[in-house]
Amino acid sequence: MGRAPCCSKVGLKKGPWSAKEDSMLTTYIQHHGVGHWRSLPKNAGLLRCGKSCRLRWMNYLRPGIKRGNFTPEEDDLIVRLHSLIGNRWSLIAGRLPGRTDNEIKNYWNTHLLKKLKSAGFESKPRKTSRTIPKKKKKTAKPDKTRSEKRKKLRHVSKPDVGNGIQDRPEMIKVYAPRPIRLSTGFARNYSFDDLATSAASSSSGNNKATLNDNGNNNNNGEELTVIPWHLYEVGDDLLDDYMDGCDLSARYSLPTSDTLMEKVYDEYLQLLSEDCCLQTCSS
DNA sequence: AACAACTGCAACCGCATGCTC
DNA sequence: TGAGCATGCGGTTGCAGTTGT
User: Fold this and answer.
1) Residue A153 Cβ under 7 A from any strand B atom
2) CA at A185, C1' at C5: how many angstroms apart?
3) Domain at A36, CATH number
């Protein structure tokens, strides 16, 4: 199906937002609420793309945004969550009140990767939710040198977009979760509990999933063993740790919190089971 | 002081997907 | 049922600030 551009690009301003634009956007949203991003710029008198307005609001102007340095606790949580769910920045952001997915993504790429690397941990490339290779982006001024340098620096975190599974013949067949879309009325910073509840409540009776004691998906008597690919793909001993019920946080020599880790992991398993069940039932 | 290289972050872009008609 | 819209996600890029030579 064809995809209409989100807005006409003609005459629209790009680049950094001015204080006046911020003020106009904030004022408009305070009076009319969020949503209808397509028509918002026109109604608010902004020469911006609706997408740009949404991004500015979500990542910068939204109330409750926490700016500034990440605490060691936040660092720790990001590392743990990333080891569990990979580059699912929005999900990770949901566990860090006041932090945005964009901020966490940047922080991971610019700080945490280096920190982990210097500590002797190699983050292996992981697959993302995307299954179709992206088209090469056209750029007006391709900075090849810089781009290559960045690739060198960041290649350890770059996902093998596209045929990741084919590239890894040793991988077992797994059921990978798709990204969970947050509905309009579903604000960020909700926990996995909220996500799982939301998924369960929105699914039909046939789609109900239950977890058995092993965290497996028990669907209408047909047991589906789920081994999160990202755990496997993380490599090393992580899958073994997972299968043996060992402390996953032992992978990183950072301050540990077993309870927190278990809770996060339980929540993730529940989310995974809902997602897998929906896929299985719908196919 | 001048220039180059590097770094960090805001913003952009393309695509996926749910929803409505 | 399919087209188009609205929104969200994650990878990438632009650019200003910082550091090194």
Assistant:
1) yes
2) 18
3) 1.10.10
Q: What is the pLDDT along chain A (283 residues), one digit of tens a residue?
A: 333 444 555 678 888 888 888 888 888 888 888 888 888 888 888 888 888 898 889 888 888 888 778 888 888 888 888 888 888 888 888 888 888 888 888 888 888 877 777 766 655 444 333 333 333 333 333 334 444 444 444 333 333 323 333 333 333 233 333 333 333 333 333 333 443 333 333 333 333 333 333 333 333 322 333 333 333 333 333 333 333 333 333 333 333 445 555 565 565 565 555 444 444 444 3
Q: How far, in Å, are A126, A144, A266, A269 from residue A273 at the CA level?
A: 20, 43, 11, 6
In a domain, A141, yes or no: no
* Domain span including residue A107: 72-126+154-282
Structural domain count of chain A: 2
CA distance A199 to A275: 8
Q: How far is the CA of A86 from the C1' of C6 (A)?
A: 27
In strand B, which positions have an atom below 7 A from any protein CB? 6-19
CB A24 within 8 A of CB A45: yes
Q: Which two tokens stand for residue A132?
A: 């179709």
In this complex, the nucleotide whose C1' atom is nearest to the CA atom of residue A54 is: C7
Task: Note whether A35 and A172 are same-domain residues.
Answer: no
Whether A66 is in a domain gets the answer: no
Nucleotide nearest to A138 (CA to C1'): B13
